Amino acid sequence: MKKILLASLFLLLAGGVFAQLDVKAVGSQILAKLTPALALADDQQPQVADAVADFLTKKAEILPLKATDASAYASKFNILNGGLIGKLKTILVAKQMTSFLMLKPKSGDTGNVLSQLFF
Fold first, then answer.
1. Closest Cα to residue 117, out of 43, 42, 13, 37?
2. What's the pTM?
3. Which is more confidently placed, 23 or 4?
């Protein structure tokens, strides 16, 4: 019985850790990938950084839903993602926007930090 309780506690704590999102660190990693991939100009970099940070902050707020109510998470995430895409369309030129959308990783590719923007 103790083993079951300990295992349950571990899973509960591990789930809480995975549900957290370090907005600053992830945002920096994302910008480090997007800057060369999209050939961001100096004036675009802070704008993209702000858009990504805003998106990640809002995503962190809804992330707990992913474990408790997947459909609510998906619905809210789609709204957030649409907002990010809309902001990026005002910052990036058409070629950069196309390139950005082509960077979308395969679903479940947790090794690619850009997956934070799409899933």
1. 37
2. 0.79
3. 23
